[in-house]
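Researcher: Here's the sequence for the chain we discussed earlier.
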Amino acid sequence: MAAIDVYNVKGEKIFQRDLRDEIFDISVREDIMHQVIKGQLASSRSGSASTKNRSKVKASGRKLWRQKGTGRARVGAASSPLRRGGGVTFGPLPRDYSFKINKKVRKAALRMALADKFKAGQLIVVDSLHLEEIKTKKFFEILKNLDLDSVLIVTEKPDENLEKSSRNIRKVKLLRAEGLNVYDILSHEHLLFVEPALERVEEVLAE
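Model: Thanks. This is the structure I predict for it:
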């Protein structure tokens, strides 16, 4: 069974814990991870091209003049696409770029991303990570003790002091365990788990 050292915030090794082989000791397939990342980025993309059809144009629905007897062409509402200022016929609407990725494939890709970080020696686990006050300097000292620069930090529960102390540091991102995703894992050089968060992730991915 795979095992990993657990450190404290001073960078000192305090104990070693086992890792689940079905998550951290699997073969990595780049094509699956690429497919999931592509789907994640597509879902976050939003189309901006948009026009108003005749039902969305703000105009009176009153008939402009009577049907017969004026000598002019018959006409309906001012919102008609035939009139200036009227709606657009078959114009562009905001496009949905997302496409479906099966749940099993997403889980498999997440396992592979974690296994890849572990095999590369870029997975770090700390017993706890908590700040008594909002202090970026103290948080930066923790990163220095653990020799981390570009890092994704995964916690078990919300921590306002930790979130506000870390948000101004470049290349550092804080996520809770339920928000862990392949793109963020691979976008950072290191992956730092608070030990309870790692337990939670293992429980979910082992199902």
